[in-house]
Amino acid sequence: MYDSGKLSDELDLDKASSEAETGAEQVAPMTRFRQSLQRSMKLYVSVSRLVLGQSLGQNRWLAATGVAGVLSFALLGMGVAALVSPYSNVETAALTADQAPQIVALDADGPVERVTLSEETPAPDADQTAAEDATDETVAADASPANAELTAPATPAEPKEVQTKVAINDGETLMQVLTDAGADRVDAYHAIAAMKPVFSPSKMRAGQEVSLTFLSNPNPEKDQPSKLLTAISLQPDIDRAIQVNRTEDGSYKSEEFQKELKSGFAHAKNTISSSLFLDAQQAGIPAPIILEMIRMFSYSVDFQREIHPGDSFEVFFDRKFDEDGIPVKEGQIAYASLTVGGKPYRLWRFKTADGNWDYYDENGNSMKKFLMRTPIDGARISSGFGMRKHPILGYSKLHAGVDFAAPKGTPIYAAGDGVVKIAGWVNGYGNFVEVGHANRYETGYGHMSAFAKGIRPGVRVRQGQVIGYVGSTGRSTGPHLHYEIHIAGKKVNPLGVKVATGMKLGGKQLASFKANRANVASQMAETPLMTRVAQASETPKAN
After folding, report:
1. 171: which residues sit within 8 A by CB, 6+ positions away?
2. For residue 470, with 0-12 CB atoms within 10 Å meaning exposed, 13-18 middle and 19 or more buried, which class applies?
3. Is the torsion defined by CA of 454, 196, 177, 164 positive or negative?
4. 178-216 per-residue burial string, b: 16 or more CB within 10 A, e: under 16
5. CATH classification of 160-258 is 3.90.1150.180, yes or no?
6. In 3D, which of 155, 168, 267 has the Cα closest to residue 535?
7. Are 420 and 459 in contact (CB under 8 A)?
8. What average pLDDT does the structure give for the chain?
């Protein structure tokens, strides 16, 4: 057939028309918007001219309004055109599968996953799938509860209660002890203040133990101490305990506890081979009881010259026991005897109707004499009364007293009740005390290292009260006590003075005393003697 070529031309025309339409579709929106804006502007301008032309002379306010309206619309059109003009030549973008953007999805409970909008991804082969499954199982196993503690975050350490014991050093205060142990100063102050109503910290002695409890906080907050003082406990006496606890509101509260101790008696006796003190210790008698025995008999016996091997003693006293039967506190002597050179001295403790107690012999005579024979314990006579060659002056001179050699600092007792007349330095005597007694008696004490607290002229002292301490002041070659007795101003031998005895019981008091003697004798018969085996566990404790 003959081909006129029209069909081909028509196809080309259609193709061009299609391309034109496609381009028209892309440009048409912006073109239509621009044409519409131009027509609007022309319309507004025409209207404005019409209004201005017809009413310019009639209503000026209407004309001004029209002009303002035209200008407003013109400005609005210009602004819109400025915003749209940069995009007038931008063609519409076609999204294809190859150019699709990637979307990132954030999963709070898992790892980040990327999803791509694309054509279907080819399925992986079997080996790759198996490897991925094995990896998934491994990850799942690691996340199992068995391995949870390996991945879980570490929890903060909890506060712990810590207890410690500290001992009070000589001259140390409780505040120092608490702060040195780690207590906050403010907490320590309030804890001590809470303790004072039941126990004064100033009464604490060196060596006393204090138990402290702290709450140790390894993660202290701001303005919070790492160690919080929660409790203080101490035992000032064997039968008393003090406890201070921190309350919930942060304050401190104190409590006092009394321990129940069992009352009992101890009975001991022995023969003297060296000295009363040493042989009494070997018999298991505590030191305070031994010293009390020496004081009891010091009015009648000279322990330096009259005690000899073969003499004997016996003592019966009360004491306190804990729940395990261990002696923890010594009481008072109920009966004691001392046989010297075959002569027995027996004394019983007895309280009179006026409430005062003393030791009396079997006839109701008080052990006390007007003056003590030896106003010092554990001393030996180094020089007696009479003429002698003075060790320092080098010539013979009356030694108007008795010298008792003793270590420096040994307590010196007042020989009897009286008033201090001299307490100061006297040439030759050094630190010297003179006490005036009844019946024109006076006693003098020389070469003291120091005076006891409160000893000064005019002060009244009682028999057995500490008035000073052994020293070597003045003309002295070593520590000792120089002891004198004056009667009506005349110096006499202290060892030869005959002094009156003390009180004598009579009437109802004597009958009561004899009944007490019988009761003590019955108790002694029921109390076994202390043995050396038992003494090993009977360590004396402070009262």
Report:
1. 206
2. buried
3. positive
4. bbebbbbeebbebbbebbeeebebeebeeebebebbbbe
5. no
6. 267
7. yes
8. 75
Domains of the chain by residue range: 160-258, 262-368+528-535, 380-492
Return the higher-pLDDT residue of 68 and 260.
260
- Contact residues for 316 (Cβ-Cβ < 8 A; gap 6+): 265, 266, 267, 333, 334, 335, 336, 520, 523, 524, 527
Fold of 262-368+528-535: Nuclear Transport Factor 2; Chain: A, (3.10.450)
The model's pLDDT over 478-490, given as tens digits with 9 standing for 90+, comes to 899 999 999 988 8
Report the amino acid identity of residue 115.
V
Those residues with Cβ within 8 angstroms of residue 528's Cβ, 6 or more apart along the chain or in another chain: 267
- Are domains 160-258 and 262-368+528-535 of this chain identical in fold? yes
> Is 380-492 assigned to CATH 3.40.50.1000?
no
Q: Measured over all CA atoms, what is the biggest interatomic distance in the chain, rounded to whole angstroms?
A: 185
Q: How many CB atoms lie within 10 A of CB 268?
A: 20
What's the per-residue H, E or C state across 132-164? HHHHHHHHHHHCCHHHHHHHCCCCCCCCEEEEE
Highest mean pLDDT among 40-54, 85-99, 312-326, 415-429: 415-429
State residue 390's pLDDT score. 54
Rounded-to-integer distance, Cα 9 and Cα 73, Å:
50
Is the full-model pTM beyond 0.85? Answer: no
